[in-house]
Amino acid sequence: MSNPLVQRLISALNSHDLDAVTACFAPDFHAEWPAHPSRDIQGPEQVRRNWEMIFKMSPDITIEMTNSVEVGEETWGEWHYTKAAGQELRGVIVVTVRDGLIRRSRFYMEPVDGPDAATPGGPRLARD
User: Fold this and answer.
1) Is 42 helix (H, G, I), strand (E, B) or coil?
2) Is 37 exposed, middle or buried (0-12, 13-18, 19+ CB in 10 A)?
């Protein structure tokens, strides 16, 4: 079981409850995408604007954390987004919770390849 605040966030996201989503984040919240730094965001109001846009683009999006480990203030979770702008996403999000609020998130999410997808930058891998 993961951190109760992270579970509350997932519930709020799946309910598309922007007030409840925003309430999970500290005023000094910072989100990082190490592989995509232009996606970094600051503060709960930007979180709200981003999710408002995502909910409009992806009204059927669902989010789950399929596995997690807690280390100190951090929850390392394997996340699965379905129907996110017509695609499926999987990856790891590291969430830092301090004083009852989310202070930081680091996203390592990627679209899921279909069964016949080529390997990025190269040929399809041998399956046998």
Assistant:
1) strand
2) exposed
